[in-house]
């Protein structure tokens, strides 16, 4: 099912972790509406960089989110986030481009090998962070480091 010209529901709800662990990762109708918003935002990112955008993680059911060690309040669980990368553009370049673009987001996190872009139900905070990993635990710095 197409959510936008270049993004499908299947792509934004795909999870290797769900498949490996036999977990249901089927989005509800409300989650599907949220994923449509994410897809529309990703279309803006695609236009911004002039290249296809790949999604490594979109929607995560609560069980899938637990299995991947995601934060309990993750926007992924609401279908309001995607972890993305783009061939030919480093994640840091991608994060900086989105930050400077005027694209509305709630949270943008440069995660080293990918970029997390999250939306919200309310007024977007335009929060920009860099994840720093130490022994599998993440801490966050303000801005793109």
Outline the secondary-structure elements.
Layout: H1 9-13, H2 16-21, H3 29-49, E1 54-57, H4 62-67, E2 81-85, H5 91-101, E3 107-110, E4 115-118, E5 127-134, E6 137-142
Parallel strand pairs: 3-5
Antiparallel strand pairs: 1-2, 2-4, 3-4, 5-6
Protein name: D-Ala-D-Ala carboxypeptidase family metallohydrolase
InterPro entries: Peptidase_M15A_C, Zn_M74/Hedgehog-like
Domain Peptidase M15A C-terminal: 5-117
Give a written overview of the molecule.
GO terms for molecular function: carboxypeptidase activity. This is D-Ala-D-Ala carboxypeptidase family metallohydrolase. Keywords: Carboxypeptidase, Hydrolase, Protease. InterPro entries: Peptidase_M15A_C (IPR013230), Zn_M74/Hedgehog-like (IPR009045). Residues 5-117 form the Peptidase M15A C-terminal domain. By secondary structure, this protein is α+β, with helices and mostly antiparallel strands. The protein has a single domain (9-142), classed as Muramoyl-pentapeptide Carboxypeptidase, domain 2 (2-Layer Sandwich). It has five helices and six strands, in the order H-H-H-E-H-E-H-E-E-E-E. The chain has helices spanning 9-13, 16-21, 29-49, 62-67, 91-101, and strands at 54-57, 81-85, 107-110, 115-118, 127-134, 137-142. It has a six-stranded mixed sheet. A hairpin with a 2-residue loop joins strand 5 (127-134) and strand 6 (137-142). The longest helix has 21 residues, at 29-49. It is globular, with a radius of gyration of 14 Å. The model has no long low-confidence stretch (mean pLDDT 96).
